[in-house]
Amino acid sequence: MLCPKEDTMKKGWILILALVILAALVVAGCGGKAKLGAEDNPIVMSFVPSGDTQEIIASGDQLAKMIQDKTGYVIEANVGTDFAAVREAMGAGKAHIGWLNTFNYVLAHEKYGVDVALVTVRYGSTSYKGQIIVRADSGINSLQDLKGKVMCWVDPNSTSGYIVPRILLKANGIDPDKDFAKTIEAGSHNNVVTQVYNGECDAGATYVDARSSVEKDIPDVKEKVVVLETTSDIPNDNVSFIKEFPQDMREKIVNALLEIANTEEGKQALNQLYSIEGLEPADDSFYDGFRAMLSKAGINIEELAK
């Protein structure tokens, strides 16, 4: 049996222990997670796999380091397994910055509130076109000749490698779901060009001019693979942020990227990444014309985002 003094001391130690545990729980709950941009909680910057994955990884890592050097934020770069993976990672908060193709961005904005900060510049323009390519010796001379052929797409979420070329085909009386003997999802623009060149596909859809991206490995690609048709103008891809991203940090990263885009090292990394010449500030209204084009073609973004 404890004496009153011993009992009081025991209760005192239990109280102290309880307070220590409570304090630890408060610290873990309120301040346990490192601040965004710290070593233990890096900013994740994700890229769509529209080109050569190894080149995207290399240039993405290089850009991440350059941003980190300018801002002090720890940046971790990765490449999505497909176009949709980057969008969904942003929606789940697993990626904070996305280098998104046009259609993917419009869906991400509608579904998750992802917001554009910068658009890419190529050939002095913030817009581009898609193209349908065939082998020069294929005997395919018009869009009508594509019926019954094997068609290569990039990815169902690719703007110029799927969405807009399908609109073009439908406008010319070709049903992209029924009129091909077979369709193949190649995964990237480079792969589409290569598969058309190799005869694995009779035709393919890419951006203008994706043939240049494989010209180093296939020197005669522009002789063997020719452009059958081009699409209407498409607004360029972008750099976007999740809606919860702190505004002050966003501004620092945007300014850093604009500065990087004007350096020789930055220009080289951007060119290797997605053949980007420069970056320009933009807001969501930049894509209103594209939304109108989709709507006119019967593509409902709100329904697709559900």
Describe the structure in your own words.
Helices cover 43% and strands 19% of the residues. The protein has a 6-stranded mixed β-sheet with strand order 2-1-3-12-4-13, sandwiched between helices. It has a 5-stranded mixed β-sheet with strand order 8-7-9-6-10. Residues 1-5 and 15-30 have low confidence and may be disordered. The protein folds into 2 domains: 43-126 and 235-304, Periplasmic binding protein-like II (D-Maltodextrin-Binding Protein, domain 2, 3-Layer(aba) Sandwich), CATH 3.40.190.10; 130-232, D-Maltodextrin-Binding Protein, domain 2. The protein contains 11 helices and 13 strands. Helix 5 links the parallel strand 7 and strand 8 (182-185). It is of the alpha/beta class and 306 residues long. It has helices at 4-31, 53-71, 83-91, 102-112, 159-171, 189-197, 221-224, 247-260, 264-274, 288-296, 301-304, and strands spanning 43-47, 75-79, 97-100, 115-121, 127-128, 130-135, 150-153, 182-185, 203-207, 225-230, 234-235, 238-241, 278-281. Helix 2 (53-71) packs across helix 8 (247-260), helix 2 runs antiparallel to helix 9 (264-274) and helix 3 (83-91) runs parallel beside helix 4 (102-112).
